[in-house]
Specification:
homodimer; Rossmann fold; 2 domains; 5-stranded parallel beta sheet
């Protein structure tokens, strides 16, 4: 293979729509990020959800069999749950096969290629359906150069995985556009790619090219244009820190927004590891980010307060803002606190 | 694909030997690490070297054509030079084809698979020769868990790439064994793998599994056993920091040895980026390494002083040791300074 011009080919994927969201046997809402993300950010493409009997997680959509979903227009089943390692569970195969037999293509953002699961491959071949892997990076990603790119960049970072980096980036991109600022959401994970229709699955890139992929993800742009880049992993995560650092160095962000979920005291699934304080997370991201952008600053804090009531959410946000001297908002709740966070991000 | 038991399959590679070392058209000695590493650490397997006329780099071995090398027993040509991105240069193909026609297999540690280069594939097929890619990670690497493993670990880290992390690890492993300490060199790059006969090419691992690969590379061992792990990249390298952090977190080193080349003021190939001071490199590696091993400490400094005379080398080593309060040695020069560095590594 010789080096060729990189192509962000994912933006040309022609995904069959609308979707039936598959929730597997999930009992942990944090692992159903894909289903929730599509419901919240691409609701016009979600006709319903489908789960195994043992699942307790729901996206709150109509519960449909694959045949019912097909009758309502669905053309693909999206695997809406992730798990550690990103593999197709053996106990999902019958349900996925049922979907294929009902006329649906299968879309997956997992690491494991659908076509390597023999019964799915056989069913897809027999019924003329497609198995579509979103988590395939573009070919020909170059090694990063560290060259400073034009335009402005915001990166969402986190104290852990699965606590709001994608929602925060989507919300901030929307808020910027609402103010008339030229802004693009840059998807770095499978759900974001399904929502945005393009991007790079940063966790699937070969490590040597991780920062290079991040450089591709937010190319040169007009001086007043903002790329709002979806963060991945966490510098503090013993499993995914490599992804987080490569994305930070390659993104060259002018502004970071640090995401956290109040009460998340330990890394999800790794109870031996405490989450860092917000002060630690801000400091380390700025310290390392300065390597490729000496002007990096923290625009503020995004807290996922979905589990708190309105009054408690406001109390936590105000306390966080006061103690750090930075705006803090829950982007999903919006309001004046989100306005203040956007002001801060734009103020540099 | 379902998860399967990881296999360090590289240790079972049966490499055809001895080697003819191919130097391409290289004019930059720093990119000829593989050739120099094999010459220095596996000399019994190197019959000679072969280069294009425009090359200025030499490993100091007999200069042989492929046919001459075959006549002297060589059974494989090893691509002994790397370049940014790890690709087969078009102007190498005629020389590699000549080697195949002379009866040699081709061994490559580059990212690009040899079999994707059509003329090489055709020549290998026509002559019944093998194209062997070393830089292929084992299948089924799991996500890292952060679980503390038994045994002791030393990781070499650097202010930059290509300044002595592999040599330092090889030297320290040899020095430990010379003292009767149970120690294994753990290869994390293609040259180390060719020397050691096993290991994991950390820069070729998909980023989500980078720390998991590092955990596999130095498995549980006897309490007094040392794994001496070859470092990769640098936390300060805008292109390769992801590899460095994943390896640091997954290795859980008890001891780091920080490698530097005096006079290397800028990142190789990226003149806009200064190398960090040794103080900065020690501090950041300890700061980040504490995440998975709170007891991590710096055993000392390894300086690559190949470009200095004996007196100047000693002066620089003594000044470095004095200013940092840590042993400093050039492992290639050995001597009492290396003894002191080994003492310090073992003293914790």
């Amino acid at each position: 293979m010789t080096m060729h011009v990189p192509s962000l080919g994912l933006s040309q994927i022609d995904l069959p729509r609308p979707y039936l969201l598959f929730l597997g046997d999930s009992i942990e809402p944090a692992y159903a990020k894909t289903a929730f993300g599509l419901r919240d950010w691409a609701p016009e493409f979600c006709v319903g959800e489908f789960a195994l009997p043992e699942a307790t997680v729901t996206a709150g959509l109509p519960q449909l069999t694959p045949a019912e979903a097909y009758a309502r227009g669905a053309r693909a089943l999206v695997i809406g749950v992730a798990n550690t390692g990103g593999v197709i569970q053996p106990n999902w195969i019958a349900a996925l096969t049922e979907a294929i037999e009902a006329g649906l293509d299968i879309i997956s953002g997992m690491h494991a290629s659908l076509a390597t699961v023999a019964p799915l491959k056989a069913a897809a071949d027999a019924h003329g359906r497609r198995l579509i892997d979103i988590r395939v990076p573009p070919r020909g990603i170059p090694v990063a150069t560290g060259r400073k790119r034009s335009g402005r960049r915001l990166l969402t970072v986190g104290t852990d995985c699965a606590l709001g980096k994608k929602y925060t980036a989507l919300s901030l991109a929307r808020a910027l556009r609402a103010r008339g600022v030229a802004a693009d959401f840059r998807a770095s994970g499978q759900t974001g790619i399904m929502i945005a229709g393009g991007g790079i699955p940063m966790d699937a890139v070969v490590a040597d090219f991780e920062s290079g992929a991040a450089e591709l993800l937010s190319p040169d742009a007009a001086p007043d244009h903002w790329d709002v880049i979806e963060g991945q992993g966490s510098l503090f995560h013993p499993s995914y820190s490599a992804v987080a650092l490569g994305l930070l160095h390659g993104s060259q962000p002018d502004v970071i927004v640090v995401c956290h979920q109040p009460g998340r005291d330990h890394i999800l699934g790794l109870e031996a590891f405490a989450t860092p304080s917000l002060e630690e997370a801000i400091a380390l991201n700025l310290q390392l980010g300065r390597r490729t952008n000496p002007a990096i600053r923290c625009g503020g804090i995004s807290l996922n307060t979905a589990h708190l009531d309105e009054a408690e959410s406001r109390r936590v946000l105000e306390a966080t803002s006061r103690s750090l001297g930075l705006p803090a908002a829950d982007p999903i709740r919006g309001g004046p606190m989100l306005d203040a966070l956007v002001d801060s991000c734009l103020s540099g």
